[in-house]
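User: Just a sanity check before I run the rest of the batch. Below are the structure tokens for the first item. I only need the designed sequence back.
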């Protein structure tokens, strides 16, 4: 999809928002009927991210004058989360919210459309790659052979590293035992970490028992609520293993292609709105919960920006090792080109 096409879709979406009352008043929507989809998300019921998925569904309905209803389900509510890819592909339900890193083992390009260790340090930069460069087109190419359509990302910032030991520079991680997943597993291993890809549910106990020294888990608020301040006296920023993050709205292609232009535009517009509003919520909650970590006695350690920038330069070599097919190499090259334009490399 070209930038011109993307702008046309966003323009259509804006028009949809303005036209919704008119659609209802003409009665055309009632004549056409209502399109009903189901979407399984990543998150547990009642969590902050799940609330934003509910807002996404509500916004789609609003933009289409009530003619497109998406019912949101929490992670695992329809099928186990690990089966969502195949379930949407097979048409069991029409849409999922996923994290591309989960499928990076089978689709190498997804290592670059989910989160890139030592990659873009700002969420706006990563989002710009999707919308202002060829990110959307490349990710859509990665899903197309499976009969799936990548709709749009939700992009937000870093996840911290929690540690049992003080880490004041990247080199201090060498020789430590750490929990990382996805592309971060491979890259952090090349920086000398002995990596264990433990399930999220085991992070607390592994830190508590000393099975690992450092760990990735989730965002700052979620990690506090999980009690990591009780088992890790240090919190390291920036989260170089996951400086920026993208989760993904992905639809069954047959269902997506059956939509009219207004409904497709509504998905695109609502997704981009949610990306911004969730990111702003996380920015505010990060400040609040970093203070809670400090009140609990956790020391916040900030890595030197020059040290991080130097490590980013070395990480390019490690990204290349993970880019094992043509599409993942093109995706990596596209990101590296933007990073060079932004003077990050």
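Assistant: Here's the designed sequence for the first item:
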């Amino acid at each position: 999809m070209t930038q011109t096409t993307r702008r046309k879709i966003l323009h259509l979406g804006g028009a949809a928002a303005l036209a919704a009352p008119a659609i209802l008043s003409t009665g055309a929507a009632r004549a056409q009927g209502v399109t009903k989809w189901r979407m399984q998300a990543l998150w547990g019921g009642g969590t902050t991210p799940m609330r934003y998925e509910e807002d996404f569904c509500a916004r789609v309905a609003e933009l289409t004058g009530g003619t497109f209803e998406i019912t949101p389900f929490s992670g695992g509510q329809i099928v186990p989360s690990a089966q969502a890819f195949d379930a949407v592909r097979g048409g069991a339900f029409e849409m999922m919210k996923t994290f591309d890193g989960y499928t990076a083992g089978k689709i190498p390009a997804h290592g670059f459309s989910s989160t890139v260790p030592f990659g873009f340090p700002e969420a706006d930069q990563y989002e710009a790659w999707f919308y202002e460069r060829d990110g959307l087109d490349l990710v859509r190419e990665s899903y197309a052979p499976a009969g799936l359509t990548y709709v749009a990302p939700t992009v937000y910032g870093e996840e911290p590293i929690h540690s049992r030991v003080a880490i004041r520079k990247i080199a201090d991680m060498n020789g430590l035992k750490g929990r990382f997943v996805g592309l971060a597993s491979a890259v952090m291993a090349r920086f000398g970490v002995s990596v264990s890809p433990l399930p999220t549910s085991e992070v607390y106990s592994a830190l508590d028992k000393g099975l690992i020294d450092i760990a990735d888990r989730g965002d700052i608020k979620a990690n506090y609520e999980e009690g990591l301040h009780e088992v890790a006296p240090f919190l390291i920023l920036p989260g170089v293993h996951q400086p920026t993050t993208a989760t993904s709205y992905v639809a069954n292609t047959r269902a997506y292609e059956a939509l009219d232009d207004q409904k497709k535009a509504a998905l695109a517009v609502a997704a981009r709105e949610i990306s911004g509003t969730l990111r702003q919520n996380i920015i505010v909650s990060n400040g609040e919960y970093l203070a809670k970590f400090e009140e609990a006695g956790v020391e916040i350690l900030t890595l030197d920006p020059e040290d991080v920038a130097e490590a980013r330069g070395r990480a390019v070599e490690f990204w290349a090792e993970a880019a094992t097919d043509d599409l993942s190499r093109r995706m990596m090259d596209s990101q590296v080109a933007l990073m060079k334009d932004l003077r990050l490399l």
